[in-house]
Amino acid sequence: MNSPELNSLSEFLQGLSEEDLAKRLGVAPAKLQELRDKPDFKQWSQDKDPESVSWRYQKDKQRYIVNLSFG
Question: When you count CB atoms within 10 A of the terminal residue's CB, does the N or C end of the chain come out lower?
């Protein structure tokens, strides 16, 4: 796989930096900044992610966190 993968459960739970998520999704960090507060960001990120993972931006940590909504 050519994309950065989540290397550990700890990294998975801590989230990714803007630069790391941009690499994973194959986009520029500026694109994440532009879209992260949009209502469809979770779906957009899932469509871009190599493993179809949905992401959300957590402002207080300034990290991108896996979206774990169920149902």
Answer: C
